[in-house]
Amino acid sequence: MKKLVSTTLALLLIVSAAPIIAQEFREISVKDYRDKMKAGWIGQIAGVCWGAPTEFKFNGTIIPEDKMPKWTPEMINHAFGQDDLYVEMTFLRSMEQYGLDVSQRQAGIDFANSGYQLWHANDAGRKNLRRGIAPPDSGHPAFNKHADDIDYQIEADYSGLIAPGLPKVVVELGEKFGGLMNYGDGIYAGQFVGGMYAEAFFETDIKKIIAAGLDCIPPDSQYAEMVRDVMKWYDENPSDWTTCWHKIDEKYQKNLDYRRVSCDTGKFNIDAKINGAYILVGLLYGKGGLDQTIVLSTRCGQDSDCNPSNAGGVLFTTLGFSKLPPRFSEKLDEKTKFSYTEYNFPALLDVCEKLARQAVLQSGGKIVKRNGEEVFWIPRQNSSGHMATVRGNIFGRPRITIVQTSPKPYKPAWKPDLPQNTKFTDAEYKLIEKREYSLDEAVEKFFPGWKLTDCGPDMDPGYRKQYHGKKDVVMTHPKAKGEPCILSKTVELPKDKKPTLKLVVAAHDAAKAQFDWELIVKADGKELLKRQIIGGWTDVSVDLSEYAGKTVKLELLNQPNGWSCEAGYWNEIKIVFQ
After folding, report:
1. How confident is the model over 71-91, as a mean pLDDT?
2. Which of 36, 223, 482, 485 has the fewest CB neighbours in a 10 Å radius?
3. Residue 417: enclosing H or E segment and its boundaries?
4. pTM for this prediction
């Protein structure tokens, strides 16, 4: 009996002394947190500025070494107009104003009211929000054909930078903000990146950092498959990054099963998976070198400023600002605000620290003082909850129970759940100052009674709040070469008045070129006018006197003329009487 008791006590003592007890909380001083968070931003900025001259100039090909720009300290200030940076600052601003747990609908309103230029999933998601489609439907594939594009991946850095060691927070932020414009792998991409940042505050081993990011996403997702592929290919050829690049290209560029719900222009690959793979090439083959990590992520091509921005940010976070070479920050302008944001660089650091404090406390952590210095006590988490919880005491020491949970089920963008048909309430929609309309909605709103047929998708036809000095413009584009887009309306004209059709129209007018199209006006099939529309705004009048006292079908044709930027811009369509 004595032997059994002593054996039991020994086992209890071994269990109570296990390393997991010391790891229930991870600690980082607020000073060190800020130092690493600051480095993360510098890495992002350096990566995007260094790679910017190459963006989408090398698609499906490795950038030659002699085509890689040389870093100069002055390049750091090319960042203020970069979408890689200003979008995530909109998210930070929403949380600063409304708290870390700001609702997704409020986040959507704030994103809808942003004033900067956007592309791809960001642009499509914001247009949906401005049309009254509330999240999460704004990023749903039923409304957003860019659901797996790179967008949330490039702007998810903030989530890890304000959630040190808190992957659950990263995942929740991804669902909230990533869902504004992405779905499925498009969201997982950002959660993966955010998870790497969160771990980079405590870990320097790149493989462990990647594994932490991988734990934040469904293991059966294509994005997770990509991460495992790149790590395997690296292990097979740890000194030959070009062999890994070719394997990535073969599977994630040439196999269309891995780019089913992302923009496919035929010119470049904006899918999150292949560009995420290039982040990993930089992190793995860069082998901890600051320059080499950014250079390799850039030389992989495609979105070759976004990818080195993510890679640089993660790696720089592991080191901290105090250990960075001065060449990456010595010329930084700390007074200029990032485009359309409230933040210059010092203000950006302040808001991140403010939100990190909230994240630590709301996650069950503490902020304590030790020797006069504030310290974050951060509970150890996985992406779904705490990994270690206290369950009583054994001989005065906490007994630890491991709670393992799995990421949420995989929802691929090509097989999504049904949309929720979420709309902003009237009160919410009034808060959106920058409204968007679908093409049909815009035609009905600004040209009541006119109907649109045979409009093609080229050049993103639809509502333009302003174009060449005129407000509330509708842009159309022919469906195909030789096939016009048609606006039509049947009207009853009074007998005793002289009717005139008044139009104000324009062609596409680029900075270095003017384009044209043919305006054709018909009444009951009879051609009344054919005119070349070139460049800026043109006033057009068409006499309808012969149809006075009759009901007539009017047709306005946006007729292609040579098939080069055939967009028709319409500012006014009305009938006046004398």
Report:
1. 95
2. 482
3. none
4. 0.78
